[in-house]
Every structure is written in C-alpha cells, then in structure tokens.
C-alpha cells in the first residue's frame, strides 16, 4: 500500500502547472502532520479527528513508542493527574529549547521535572524535609520546590538555583519516568498564557509540533488549576508559589503534621 506521502506526491504531479506550488505545499504539510503519532490509552474513539490515531492501544506499546520519541530528543504530549502536559528529557538541552518554542514560553519561566519514584528526587534536588513528608504528598497533584543538585542539566532553568519536582498520581506517567531512567521536563500542554487543557482535542494546534500525543481521555479534575506548587527550600518553612488544586490538603500536611511555618518573605 502506498503511503500517504506518496499519494501526496502523485497529487502534486497531477495538478496543473499554475497550481503546482500550492499542491507541493499541501503535500508537504500532509507528510509533516502525519509524523505525529496519536496513541490512545483509552478507546480509539476518544482520539481527536485532526490526525488519524495509530493502531496501537496497548499501554506497554504506547510506553515504548513514547520512550523512544523522548530518547530521540522529541517533545511529547502526555496526560497527568491534573492537566495535560508537554514533556521532554530534562537532560537534553535541545529538547528543552524545543519545548519553550512550542509553547511560545518566556525563557525566564521555569519548567518542572517529573520523576517516577521518591528516591529519584534526592538525585536532582537537595531535600530539606523528612522523607515521610514527601511520601504524604507524592505521588499527587503537588510540585515541591527545592534547591537543585549539580547533577541536573545546567541548561535547565539556568536562571534559578531552585527546581520544582513532580510525581503525578498517574500510572502511565510514573512508568514513563521509570522507563526513561532520567527526569522529564514537564509543563502544561497549551500555548503560553492560554487556558490549561484537560483533553487532547483542546490543544490540537500543538499536535503537529510534537512527536507523540498520548490520549488518556479527559482528566478527572476539571478545575484546570494544575498542581499546587510549594517551595520547601528553606529549613522549617514553606511558601506557596501557586495555590493549584490541592492547596488545603497540602497546607494541612505541612503545618499540622510536620510543623512547618509559612514563609511570608518579610523576614
């Protein structure tokens, strides 16, 4: 069976001379668009209409496809426990730049890292709290901010000594991080300053710019608030950077269980 790209070339040849340039552009766009794989963790019917979903719906095969794309330096779109995200390897400087370009994101706005296990946090962050505290908040809809370690890519958020780390309460994302064996850079799957997305069809304009779109279906939390971001880089203190979707429960753990006090920044 001839590929869609070959059919596009035949279409170009059959057009009249005066429209050949437009046909070439159209054929090139078709080939470029079809480089994006749309992989459905749920039923194929949940995939959006702009790009034909791939045949593989098995979770193991989707993980393999996504890991391969990440290892090749591509950016992928993935579900999390809060909103859809764009991910790439945090240790790959070119992939980091691609992520900023895709989003149109200000280069001075940081990305978070995403890891699969609590012990991974200690490799990339200088942790100032008890391990039990990490276990009470993670996996979950919380981003914890610590001083970064020297192991982390120097091109990743080079303007700050801090880094936010996530372990989403999402089986696919945790396994993806484990299979990659290194942290993912993670940010929301939307154009910068636009509304966060909870379904893949909501960011279709980004599909041609990423290698893989993993459709995990609609995100259960429809608040679109994203994770609660809390700075734990100061011993005995916490500072809320973004309230997010889990503010109350997070503060309850920090204050009442571990006795941390809020850092107002006025001292």
Describe, in short, the structure shown.
The chain has 267 residues and is of the alpha/beta class. Helix content is 31%, strand content 19%.
Helices and strands in order:
Layout: H1 4-14, H2 20-33, E1 37-40, H3 59-71, E2 76-79, E3 84-89, H4 93-103, E4 112-114, H5 118-124, E5 125-126, H6 131-137, E6 142-148, E7 162-166, H7 171-180, E8 184-188, E9 212-215, E10 228-231, E11 237-242, H8 247-257, E12 261-262
Parallel strand pairs: 1-9, 2-9, 4-7, 6-10, 11-12
Antiparallel strand pairs: 2-3, 3-8, 4-8, 5-6, 6-7, 10-11
Helix pairs in contact: 1-2, 3-7
Structure explained in plain terms:
The chain has 267 residues and is α/β, with parallel strands linked by helices. It contains eight helices and twelve strands. The chain has helices spanning 4-14, 20-33, 59-71, 93-103, 118-124, 131-137, 171-180, 247-257, and strands at residues 37-40, 76-79, 84-89, 112-114, 125-126, 142-148, 162-166, 184-188, 212-215, 228-231, 237-242, 261-262. Strands 1, 2, 3, 4, 5, 6, 7, 8, 9, 10, 11 and 12 form a twelve-stranded mixed beta sheet that branches. Helix 8 links the parallel strand 11 (237-242) and strand 12. Helix 1 (4-14) packs antiparallel against helix 2 and helix 3 (59-71) crosses helix 7. The termini are far apart. The model is unreliable at 1-34 and 43-53 (pLDDT under 50).
